[in-house]
Amino acid sequence: MSIGTLDRTPPPFFRQGPSALTKLTFFAALALFLMVADTRLDVTQSLRAVIATALHPVQRALLVPVQTWESGSEYLAGLQQALVGEQAARRELAQQAERAMRVEQLLAENTRLRALLELRPALSVRSQAAQVLYDAPDPFSRKVVIDRGAMDGIKLSSPVINEAGVLGQVTRVYPLSSEVTLLTDKDAAIPVLNTRSQARSAAFGSAGVGSAALELRFMAGNADVQVGDLLSTSGVDGVYPPGVPVAKVVSVDRKVDTGFARIVLTPAALPDSVRHVLVLEPIGLQMPPKPEPIAEESNVKPAKKGSRK
User: Fold this and answer.
1) Beta pairing class for 166-173 and 159-161
2) Residues of the chain with CATH 2.40.10.340
3) What is the chain's Cα-based Rg?
4) What are the tens digits of pLDDT across the range 152-197?
5) Which CATH number fits domain 127-285: 2.40.10.340, 3.40.140.10, 3.40.50.970, 2.60.40.10?
6) 163 with 191: CB under 8 angstroms?
């Protein structure tokens, strides 16, 4: 066999294609092209949608064990919480039942005592809901305007409250709206009762512009007032019903040189965050009329005619 007839080509196992650098450059350029085309032209959006649709049942099937495990864990945890909540609700219900029995006993005892002392029954306060429209334009006062007026039966001096306590008093009545002076106004004042010591006093609005505090004035330096005392309406003014929360004592500064104490209060109802209020009828309208003064009887008696003998 001649040498020229030999096949000098390498076997298929040892054949080499393009170099590794060429392959790296090609595939890097292809990846970069696909990324730019997908971002700018959305060429793979339809392909991605088809693949996602095809794989969705598979994904749902693979999620079934995970969802089953999570649902079982949530069910067991919820069952445990429900059992604990049921026990707490039963204890609270028992406490409420005991408290309700005590309240009924106290109400019956109060009724018997009032009947024994021949006292008038407690006054029922009529009320109606209203909404705060806007603040009064005067920057030196604390007043708001509500959407109820004379056509709705609003009376002058009607108390205005919310779920927290007293807000103020109606000072102007218009046909369709009313102006309410808040307790924090510098000209506002309200009789209060200390629920701890049962001492009566008067709370006044703070004189500072924009202040949201009250103060007890003309209180002696040794007055029985402590930080944390709760003040409610006393009901002696014929305007506010008794027992409505007014304020809480936050500081007591007993001044020795003047003999008076400076007592600062924070209102129970914060007027800045109030949108809906309740307008009460002044309790003075339900009070019996004051008796008229009895005219003094004349001490001069008519002279008797003398009898002739």
Assistant:
1) antiparallel
2) 127-285
3) 43
4) 989 898 999 988 899 999 999 998 899 999 998 888 999 999 999 9
5) 2.40.10.340
6) no
Q: Residue 290: is its pLDDT beyond 70?
A: no
